[in-house]
GBP family porin
Amino acid sequence: MKKTLMVAALTGVFATAAHAQSSVTLYGLIDAGVTYANNSGGHSLWKASSGTVNGSRWGLRGSEDLGGGLKAIFTLESGFNIMNGAAGQSSRMFGRQAFVGLASNQFGAVTLGRQYDSVVDYLAPLSNTGTQYGGTIAAHPYDNDNLNNSIRFNNTIKYSSVNYAGFKFGGTYSFSNSTEFANNRAYSFGASYNWGGLNVAAGYLQLNNDVNNLQQAATNSGAQTGEYTFAAGRQRTFGGGVNYTFGPATAGFVYTQTQLGNAVGISATQSGHNGGIGFGADSARFQNFEGNVRYALTPALSLAGAYTYTRASFGGGVNPNYNTVALQSDYALSKRTDVYLQGDWQHVSDTSTGVGAYLNGLGSASTRQDQIAVTVGMRHRF
């Protein structure tokens, strides 16, 4: 049960900000576990892990009723590593989300700040990596479509519609905050429709960058700073998906494609390879085909799984294909606490190109075509 803190309970830096709010909610999630990997940089690995499925975070969410169906809203959310206490997202204080805006019961919400793109908002919940049933380590190779939120966007204005009989839509624009208006900007749009057990969604995301001047410091101006998946002048990501729930089971399919122009390579952080992975041409492409399923055996025990086939083109004759499988068993000890066992496996078609298998978040890629990881963990929500 989330704890609602009234004005008198807030202290320090938040006391003044919260004074005018109707309510402020403190919330969070802690994901901790132990992971075994068969090959991480050529060696087996045992590690105490944070956020293997869902990134550990805490946040403040507030609203003020302005009357007439209008309210002011804000969210400040910080990611962290539970094992060492370090801040995530390039050591930002509120690296996951930080925004303020107005929400109307009739017209939707407009918010400004550091926010998620529309592919994450609408399409990711239909995928395995975008949910609690697969999460971080189950991302498509290198999180090439950003369904796992590897990149969040600064300087963003977002519109989110209300629910029109199951139909929702929205879009974002992220400013460069420089005189080079079109450099280091991003924009996205997406929509979803829910009817009974059927849920369909689609989204589009585009990033523009000066590939020779990527902004590595979190404090630099630009839509994308601090974290990078691709060194590329232009990234276009789009896709669609469908889920259908029947009784205790949900089955789904998600397709995404990422096209890169003026492309140099994949960052070392996202690829698990020292020095990153270079492309053999100025264009590259990823296509992901994911099938997923989950089943509630009992109200407390659930099983979930997903298979993703990824077809990639790095240029220069390097065209690796990836097969990725994620399996999870989860048991709820209460409404807020659960324990899980998750196994993940990836096979890449050919390591002669220097590209080894890599499961998201393990730290180092495999020196072979396969990488396997098994995690035993627990999550607590507050």
